[in-house]
Amino acid sequence: MMSRWLGIASLVGAAALGCAQPQADEDSLRASFAEQIATSDFVDDFSQEGNELSFSGPDGEGGTAAWVVRIETSLVEPVEFDDEMPFTGRILSEWKKDGEVAQYLGNMTALPKPFLDRGLAQECWAFWIEADRRWSWE
Fold it and tell me: Do the bridges between strand 104-105 and strand 108-109 make them parallel or antiparallel, or are there none, so unpaired?
């Protein structure tokens, strides 16, 4: 009887974990950043190993390149007096195109426009949309 209750308790616990609401934290921010890249129409062969994302995508010159993005840091901060978007997130990452580091100087970047149009860059910001419990990059 005791093992039966333990089995039921384990199932209930697993179900509860599976239904957990997304949180505005660094893990969800990093996962959302990766998803923003992976779900881009112009990205193929996406894979992720830890903080390193690999895929093929536009090279900015009409062709395709092999890209590797390494998330270096992430930060989530509260926003005062904004119940709709109570957190901002920031990702700093290094982007390599065909093995060469894509240059980044402040607000100037060598990344192709399709990435920038999706809110992606070496330094990018996201806003937590409380009603949807998700990060927005655009």
Answer: antiparallel
Q: Is residue 82 part of a domain?
A: yes
* 100-101/108-109 β-pairing: unpaired
In 3D space, the residue among 47, 133, 128 whose CA is nearest the CA of residue 88 turns out to be 128
Sequential pLDDT tens for the chain (138 residues): 444 444 444 444 444 445 677 799 999 999 999 999 999 999 999 999 999 999 999 999 999 999 999 999 999 999 988 888 899 999 999 999 999 999 877 677 889 999 999 999 999 999 999 999 999 997
Task: Dump strand ranges (E) for 32-83.
Answer: 44-49, 52-58, 64-78
- Residue 8 lies inside a defined structural domain of this protein: no
Residues of the domain holding 33: 22-136
Helices within the chain (DSSP H only): 2-18, 26-38, 113-117
Which residue type, as a one-letter code, is found at position 111? Answer: L
When divided into structural domains, the chain yields a total of 1
- Token pair listed for 56: 């093929």
For residue 43, the SS3 value is coil
